[in-house]
């Protein structure tokens, strides 16, 4: 059982909310607020390369999430626990991320207080098994999709910065060996979880995640890593990365690489959108890592499954941002007057808003369906690919329509829609960074 106070609170909350006790006794809102506020002990994002990782205990065997219960009923309605988590994350995103997004986009970095507040939500702790003092009893892709969607409703760039460490914790829980979990995963149950990210994308034309140029070649009793990664979140202050590379047998795997090792350099490389995520590139020149750095060690990880889970995370981010666009333009077109009446009275305007709503529902349902299949342990790679295609195509169109509906206001930074448009264009070209 978790000994961390937040871990105890979240563990109890998960059990009580699923039983409906809090709702019946009228304490749901009060307990949710307590967990939302957290312990507020601060956050130090600048500890890259200085954080020492050591095993906290001997696990004996890897701690894996429990299988989701199979009800036999296809129902995508969030349960009480998921609804509670979603409400807390949405509140934080709307009250904190939305307010900080403009400055963060200009500065190309997430503010420390925003990352601190996200850490206090305990999202990373929910990915850590109880044997490592976390609050996780299962690993739910549906819950992860709801969290990503809700966070992106505030701002996609800041959402990525906040959720990149959660994605790393998910992958360590899903694939990490007992030794890797004891050394790295346990840190995510602390009050200050380590900033970290998944490094997958490479600066290659027509990038194919199944054909990587970055290599981890066996040399002696260790590995030597060479190559380059781009569009990596939190690149300047991450304590470690999960780096995708081809091994000596040309198989794709993930490797744990701590920041500060010899031969590893980085540079900030902000792009058109999701600038608040602190994107940058990593360069590996003869970086020596132990053989035990391979995620899962001898068994490795299910790389294709990881790709699909990462795609679903980006789909959920697209859904949240698209919902923000719809929520912003709807009152705007109803209040904006032209020729003595609201512009929403014009069919071209009304139909464009309706198209946004229709496409958004398709994106959301496709994403939730793929996440539900993943949670049940069923094949979901096809459904994840379908959802990603829908979100990449329609997300861009929703962002563009949002700009058009605001007219001249859509072109200026006074309104956030132009930023959401830039962010949504990333869905079709970015891989990695986050994962469910």
Secondary structure: elements and pairs:
Layout: H1 5-19, H2 21-25, H3 28-37, H4 80-107, H5 112-120, H6 141-152, H7 156-175, H8 178-183, E1 196-199, E2 215-219, E3 222-232, E4 240-246, E5 252-258, E6 264-268, E7 280-290, H9 303-335, E8 337-338, E9 341-342, H10 347-375, H11 381-405, H12 417-424
Parallel strand pairs: 1-4
Antiparallel strand pairs: 2-3, 3-7, 4-5, 6-7, 8-9
Helix pairs in contact: 1-3, 3-4, 4-6, 5-7, 6-9, 6-10, 7-9, 9-10, 9-11, 9-12, 10-11, 11-12
Quick summary of this structure?
The chain is 46% helix and 12% strand.
Please, could you describe this protein's structure?
- The chain is α+β, with helices and mostly antiparallel strands and 436 residues long.
- 46% of the residues lie in helices and 12% in strands.
- It has 12 helices and 9 strands.
- Strands 2-3-7-6 form a 4-stranded antiparallel sheet, with no helix packed on it. Strands 1-4-5 form a 3-stranded mixed sheet.
